[in-house]
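Example for tutorial group B:
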């Protein structure tokens, strides 16, 4: 069986799992049971198993649709599940939450206290009017997936995928980079009107979700939906300012020095890739592998050097059809880790083209997979797996750093030094982008006018881009291209989920700083924090990993100083 065939088999969903009638009797039985405090634990176990089955079907159908954005049948099957199963499941879940919350004298144990509090908050936020509106919301997001998944790029007379075109942006040949950038820009402008229309629909839907829940705006609604209880919008605004003050000047200096070393009179858009800054010596980008199979083998050896248990988990993924790494037409161009809770199996989707950035992203996504494995092993109830979103990127980002000392089989000492430098530079360059993404969404959902237009979105993005990326010279270029930078995956698919990347990158740097002094201890703390899953509050999870939950200006300044020291070394 080929690896792709194994993937397709892993994603199979029986027809019975796509029908609400399969799940309804079990929800009804849970609802009809007379429930006392003593009976709650067993009742929760049954409910958790049912929710896991639902999540399994949703995850597999969604992932299969992402792998086949050009297959109408795959799209229709997923959308049918969303439209016909999820609304009834949402209503049934709300009823069970209300039933649990009404049980006299029930006091949740410590490992369920947070989930119980979340149930209470979710029940308070629930509105019947939003059930069908969420179906509309999912359908609108799927329009974005289909549009971008089928996006074409014509480069040098050949049609290539988005990841393949982006690979050319890493070339030391400036003319090649410029040609690739223009080809991508042309492709993006072609799809932009369709994405504009999707965004306007999403904005109206999201505003209505907030109004139905009696919230002043979608930011307030989403804050509660994401269970953000450990920080406020004001803290986020302070983070934006801290990045502008502490990180933008550092990034500007770093980019300017690279440009000077290369003899560039100015930094054009094709001279800047925040994930892989240009090599100041003009060397070709690292190409550590050619095929997805080679990348798997490379990673397998790195995990074996890091930790026997982690290596065994990755081997399980390789042998069980839980990796789909190759880029191909019709496949969504993003990368992510999915999760199938009934079997406690994570699934990683990528679009690799042979770059060092692909290596980093694989370690990132497999770090998520480890989180799923470890939290699933330790936490029987499905709601207690994974973690709050303010922590969920730490397992992935920390894995980017923890594998650094285990790549000598794939990279020479010089190449490993370059890879390490790119990773550290990437943290610095990422923070202005993260602040810009978060600032745009605060404006979009809490400050933008009611009669918002696409021109307003473009103008606000331009203003923010000039603030957070002042070192890029756009003179003489079509500013429509720059203005459409907001047409990014997370803006459409997971609104307000982005500042978490910045929080967690800061924490990951802290974990790596510890690992340089005590590698074994840092790794054990890392794994222990993963096992806590969603059963511990955010600050406690950070402490378990050996770091602080902070993203204020003083903290950022200290970490930037550490990164500068490491880069100079």
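The residue assignment follows.
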């Amino acid at each position: 069986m080929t690896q792709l065939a194994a993937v397709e088999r892993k994603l199979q969903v029986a027809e019975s799992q796509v029908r609400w009638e399969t799940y309804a009797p079990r929800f009804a039985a849970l609802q009809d049971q007379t429930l006392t405090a003593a009976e709650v634990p067993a009742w929760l176990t049954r409910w958790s198993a049912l929710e896991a089955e639902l999540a399994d079907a949703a995850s597999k159908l969604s992932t299969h649709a992402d792998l086949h954005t050009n297959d109408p049948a795959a799209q229709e099957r997923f959308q049918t599940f969303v439209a016909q199963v999820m609304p009834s499941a949402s209503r049934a879940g709300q009823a069970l939450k209300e039933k649990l919350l009404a049980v006299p004298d029930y006091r949740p144990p410590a490992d369920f206290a947070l989930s119980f509090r979340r149930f209470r908050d979710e029940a308070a936020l629930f509105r019947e009017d939003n059930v069908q509106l969420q179906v509309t919301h999912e359908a609108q997001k799927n329009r974005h997936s289909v549009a971008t998944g089928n996006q074409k790029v014509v480069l040098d007379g050949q049609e290539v995928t988005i990841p393949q075109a982006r690979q050319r942006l890493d070339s030391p040949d400036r003319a090649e980079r410029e040609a690739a950038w223009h080809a991508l820009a042309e492709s993006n402008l072609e799809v932009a009107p369709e994405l504009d229309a999707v965004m306007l629909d999403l904005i109206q839907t999201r505003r209505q979700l907030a109004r139905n829940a009696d919230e002043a705006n979608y930011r307030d609604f989403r804050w509660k939906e994401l269970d953000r209880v450990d920080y406020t919008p004001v803290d986020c605004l302070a983070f934006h300012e801290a990045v502008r003050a502490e990180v933008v000047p550092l990034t500007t200096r770093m980019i300017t020095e690279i440009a000077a070393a290369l003899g560039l009179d100015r930094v054009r858009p094709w001279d800047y890739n925040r994930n892989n800054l240009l090599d100041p010596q003009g060397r070709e980008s690292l190409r550590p592998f050619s095929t997805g199979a080679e990348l798997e083998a490379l990673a397998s050896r790195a995990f074996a050097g890091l930790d026997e248990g982690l290596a065994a988990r990755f081997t399980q993924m390789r042998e069980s059809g839980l990796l789909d790494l190759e880029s191909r037409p019709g496949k969504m161009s993003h990368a992510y880790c999915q999760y199938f809770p009934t079997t406690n199996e994570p699934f990683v989707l990528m679009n690799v083209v042979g770059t060092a950035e692909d290596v980093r992203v694989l370690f990132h996504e497999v770090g998520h997979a480890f989180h799923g494995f470890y939290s699933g092993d330790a936490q029987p109830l499905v709601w207690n797996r994974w973690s709050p979103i303010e922590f969920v990127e730490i397992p992935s980002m920390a894995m980017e750093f923890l594998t650094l000392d285990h790549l000598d089989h794939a990279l020479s000492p010089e190449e490993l030094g370059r890879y390490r430098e790119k990773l550290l530079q990437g943290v610095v360059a990422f923070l202005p982008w993260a602040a810009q993404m978060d600032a745009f969404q605060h404006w979009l959902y809490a400050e933008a006018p009611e009669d918002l237009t696409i021109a307003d979105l473009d103008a606000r993005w331009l203003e923010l881009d000039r603030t957070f990326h002042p070192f890029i010279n756009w003179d003489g270029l079509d500013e429509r291209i720059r203005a459409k930078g907001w047409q990014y995956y997370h803006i459409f698919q997971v609104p307000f989920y982005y500042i978490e990347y910045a929080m967690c990158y800061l924490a990951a740097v802290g974990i790596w700083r510890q690992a340089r002094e005590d590698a074994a201890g840092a790794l054990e703390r890392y794994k222990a924090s993963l096992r806590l899953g969603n059963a511990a509050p955010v600050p406690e999870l950070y402490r378990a990993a050996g770091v602080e939950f902070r993203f204020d200006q003083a903290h950022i300044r200290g970490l930037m100083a550490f990164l500068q020291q490491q880069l100079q070394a």
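The two ends are 48 Å apart (CA to CA). Compare this with the pattern of hydrophobic and polar residues in the output above.
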